[in-house]
Amino acid sequence: MPVITAIEDLKRLHKRRVPRMFFDYCESGSYTEQTFRDNVSDFGKLRLRQKVAVDMSNRTIAGTMLGQPVTMPLALAPVGFTGMQSADGEIKAARAAEAFGVPFTLSTMSICSIEDVAAHTSAPFWFQLYVMKDWDFVASALDRARKAGCSALVLTLDLQIMGQRHKDLKNGLSAPPKPTLANIIDIATKWRWAVGMARTKRHSFGNIVGHAKGVKDLSSLGSWTAEQFDPQLDWGKIARIRDMWGGKLILKGVLDEDDARRAADFGADAMIVSNHGGRQLDGALSSIRRLPSIARAVGDQVEVWMDGGIRSGQDVLKALAMGAKATMIGRSYIYGLGALGQAGVSAALEVIRKEIDTTMALCGERDIAKFGAHNLMIPMDFEGDWKD
Q1: What is the DSSP string of 155-205?
Q2: How far apart are CA 266 and CA 269, in angstroms?
Q3: In sequence order, which residues have a C-beta less than 8 Å from that of residue 89 and are 6 or more positions away?
């Protein structure tokens, strides 16, 4: 196994070992990709305060998310096509998260089904729902998640309309890849990936094929997916889903203070400050810049988490200092999965864990729960002075 010291090491391996369309799916945003880039670069505007002559023994970075103990305040975010980054990718990622002691979230658009992941893990995982027009499908997905023991529902709010991602369109993104000459040539150079895929039966969207009405094969899947995202999703429908689910509810995609207050008053157990990884509204502010005002807006009414641009343990600490109770990572663990499978996800988590622990100590803190704004140097204009 190569020596991995940073998430960037995994990203380089990922690019070499996975077909281009799936690396590009991970490493891209919508339209100009401004928000996609800002999610990462805006962390660099925050500086950490070094403290010396402080007892740095007996440190702890453990915490809780929704009352669930976690070894660090981080969960694996839902990512579509995960099983195309590595064969049976959702199972591998869930196993790595379970072994590490952090939550895993399964996407509606996963390759491995809810039942697949449940059969290969022992810890409860979370299920992420995209709201579709077909309410029979929505009800069935919720019922399947309950039967699989999923301990929370992550409801994504910012995908009623799909943002355009130029690379996905140009690459002809599909699961499995279409047998075009360009794809065949590309896959021929990614032999590890190809061998893994040849050994699994899971090649398409396991939560949809055979579960959605009229979707029996790939040809019917494409037309169903293109038509099904519900543009009429509103708070009334969110309430209906909450009542149908009846368990812990996490609202993902909050980027506005008014929406945050509404989500808190609505009774969500947690909300995720997120711009969908820069893949939806291009030109929106980064998650880390929106986080402080949203955290202030809701106070202690609801757990506020942040997703978007986290590539290091330092980024996790900066998010906590800016008001998040916990964080989620997507691309950082997908790089690891594409590079080295389950071992790569574990490597990504270990890199972040070590960076959190070392950085926290050098900032003079022994308990991650006490890491806060006093540990940062924040530019006066970081949140921006915007005209109403």
Answers
A1: EE-S-SSPPP-HHHHHHT--SSPP--HHHHHHHHT-HHHHHHHHT-S--S-
A2: 9
A3: 82, 83, 111, 112, 337, 341
Q: DSSP code of 285?
A: P
Q: Token digits for 371?
A: 């890491």
Catalytic residues: 276
**What domains can be seen in the chain, in order of their start residue?**
7-203+230-377 (3.20.20.70)
pLDDT for the residue 220: 67
Exposure letters 115-132 (e unless 16+ CB within 10 A, then b): ebbbeebebbbbbbbbbb
Which runs of consecutive H residues, i.e. helices, occur in 209-256? 218-228, 235-245
DSSP 49-76: PP--S----S-B--EEETTEEESSSEEE
Residues pairing with 304 in the sheet: 271
SS3 (DSSP) at 274: coil
Q: Note the pLDDT tens digit of each residue in 119-169.
A: 999 999 999 999 999 999 999 999 999 999 999 999 999 998 889 999 999
* pLDDT value of position 13: 98
CB neighbourhood size of 283 (10 A): 12
Query: Residue 36 is encoded by which pair of tokens?
Result: 């996609």
The arithmetic mean of pLDDT across residues 192-218, rounded, is 90
Q: Of the candidates 298, 263, 291, which has an alpha carbon nearest to the alpha carbon of residue 275?
A: 291
How many C-alpha atoms does 148 have within 13 Å on its Cβ side?
25
